[in-house]
Amino acid sequence: VAVMYRLITLDATNTLFRVRGSVGYQYAKSAMEQLGYQLSAANIDKEFRKAYKMYWIKYPNFGAAHRITSKQWWGKVVRKTFDGNIHSEEIEAFSVHLYNHFATGDPWEVFPEVMHVLTQLKGEEVTLGVISNFDERLEQILDSLKLREFFSFILTSRKVDVCKPSPEIFRLALKMSGVHSKEALHVGDNLELDVLGASSAGFSSLLLNRQDSSHKHVLENFKVIPNLKALIK
């Protein structure tokens, strides 16, 4: 696949790496280690998903347009997630701890094939970039996971003030790499954000579906790959 393109961009979370265990597992583990609270990871996961969705709607893109720092935005999500489970006087410092913890490589794990695939692609002299709806910590995370060196640029929605699926963030990647959209491919795990977003900017796109999906009928119109090895075949 790679030889057909001069630019390949990839999503980050659930494409290059994922949360180790789950967000609920990581939050519960930290609550135990930092504060001595024993909480259910499954419940925290459920509350986290609700809180994340709520604040993404209220203050999109980690609060970028509302003069909220991403650290403050995540503080709101953490407070809502643990509402009633952690004392209010402890939650502020705990949310900062979680923000800093998730800026390291510790709570993340790289998918098994990623390092090999990126090494091969780098050898093909393809320009590689990351396009992700993420905050400013992504570069540091990629660095910790030993992935940063593979990429010519990292575009995060918070930093450039535009989110996928807007074609603008993809066009920015074309501008930065000096490549025409016909020579560009984007790969990610989200149909709307990655595939439709990239297509709207003229990119070719591949949908990464690491699970054997029950949504197969929905995906038939799109090129689906089970992992990133397809990029070097």
Polypeptide structure, described:
Helix 1 (23-35) crosses helix 2 (41-58). The chain is 46% helix and 14% strand. It has 233 residues and is of the alpha/beta class. It contains 11 helices and 8 strands. It has 2 domains: 2-18 and 109-231, HAD superfamily/HAD-like (Rossmann fold); 21-103, Haloacid dehalogenase-like hydrolase (DNA polymerase, domain 1, Orthogonal Bundle). The strands form 2 sheets. A 6-stranded parallel sheet has the order 5-4-1-6-7-8. InterPro entries: HAD-like_hydrolase_domain, HAD-like_sf, HAD-SF_hydro_IA, HAD-SF_hydro_IA_REG-2-like, HAD-SF_hydro_IA_REG-2-like_cap, HAD_sf.
Number of strands: 8
What is the structural class? alpha/beta
Strand content: 5-15%
Looking at the structure, the CATH topology of the largest domain is Rossmann fold
How is the main sheet built? Answer: 6 strands, parallel
Which sequence of SSEs, written as H and E, runs from N to C? EEHHHHHEHEHEHHEHEHE
Could you name the ranges where pLDDT drops below 50 across 5 or more consecutive residues?
A: none
Q: Going by CATH, what is the homologous superfamily of the largest domain?
A: HAD superfamily/HAD-like
Tally the structural domains: 2
Indicate the overall shape: globular
What would the average pLDDT be, to the nearest integer? 94
Going by CATH, the architecture of the largest domain would be: 3-Layer(aba) Sandwich
How far apart are the first and last residues' alpha carbons, in Å? 6 Å
Lateral strand order in the biggest sheet: 5-4-1-6-7-8
Q: Count of DSSP helices?
A: 11
Protein name: Haloacid dehalogenase-like hydrolase domain-containing protein 3
InterPro entries: HAD-like_hydrolase_domain, HAD-like_sf, HAD-SF_hydro_IA, HAD-SF_hydro_IA_REG-2-like, HAD-SF_hydro_IA_REG-2-like_cap, HAD_sf
GO cellular component, one term: nucleus
